[in-house]
Design brief:
- This protein is an alpha+beta fold and 171 residues long.
- It has two domains: 71 residues, no CATH class; 73 residues, no CATH class.
- The chain has a four-stranded mixed beta sheet.
- Helix 4 links the parallel strand 1 and strand 2.
- The longest helix is centred in the N-terminal third of the chain and has 23 residues.
- The radius of gyration is 26 Å and the shape is elongated.
- It starts with 12 loop residues before the first helix and ends with a helix.
Length: 171
Amino acid sequence: MEVIDLSDLFNTRSQAEDFSARLELVAKEIFETGFNPEKALLSQFGITKKETFMNLLRNNNVNAESRLAIKEFIDKIQAKIASLPVMSMVLAFEPTDETLQAFSRWFILNTKKQVLFDIKIDKTIIGGAAILSNGKYLDYSIKPTFEKVMTNTLLGHRTPRKVNSVSNLAK
């Protein structure tokens, strides 16, 4: 499948599912009398995503006047959405759209692939992230380091210290 970057339209699995469902509603209207692609996209996505989708049509040489070409392009987008890999991430904070966009751009730049994020929030990881991808769990959170430091610090205070007595110092 050719490369179509959809990261300006969605970055998470739930966003992609919502986009796909709304796009399906647009697809059902295509062959109705009086169909206007810009109006249909605007009603489903709002102005920003409508403009982004219209740019996708132009950039992929899809004739916005051809209902059949639009339907074929929507089918191609739906297939692309279904084929996107999902990366599960655990974060200590709720990411903003800008943060998700930055994550997405990083993956596109470094792996040449768009991924969908399945984000879970767990404030106990303190910071960083835990990632599950392709059956591999990678913990880049601060929690293990913090727990190790805390354990060493607390154990250090409980363990009796070797105190030099005055008689040992004289030797």
